[in-house]
């Protein structure tokens, strides 16, 4: 725990939001999920995982193409 925020591994974070640890590791490497790598383990906070989920988890798949009216 850091202050009042719970520290999570990417495995725990993935279980929390329904994503694989691999997906979250890629997000951490891209900088869209704030996480710290200590030795071989990535750690993040529950608050950060919730922020990531709100901002980055829309509907899966590609965004629909914009339709042009005929």
DSSP strand content = 15-25%
Rounded to an integer, what's the Rg over CA atoms?
Answer: 15 Å
Number of strands: 3
Question: How do the helices and strands follow one another from N- to C-terminus?
Answer: EHHEEH
Distance between the termini: 57 Å
Which class best fits the helix and strand makeup?
alpha+beta
- Unreliable spans are none
Shape: elongated
- For the biggest β-sheet, the strand order reads 1-3-2
Helix content: 40-55%
Provide mean pLDDT, rounded.
87
- How many helices? The count is 3
The profile of the biggest β sheet is: 3 strands, antiparallel
Brief descriptors of the model:
about 70 residues; alpha+beta; single chain; 3 strands
What does this structure look like?
By secondary structure, the chain is α+β, with helices and mostly antiparallel strands. It has helices at 10-17, 21-30, 46-56, and strands at 7-9, 36-38, 41-45. Strands 1-3-2 form a three-stranded antiparallel β-sheet. A hairpin with a 2-residue loop joins strand 2 and strand 3. Helix 1 crosses helix 2 (21-30). The longest helix has 11 residues, at 46-56. It is elongated and about 55 Å long.
Present the secondary structure layout.
Blueprint lengths: L6 E3 H8 L3 H10 L5 E3 L2 E5 H11 L14
Antiparallel strand pairs: 1-3, 2-3
Helix pairs in contact: 1-2
Summarize the model shown:
The chain is built from 3 helices and 3 strands, in the order E-H-H-E-E-H.
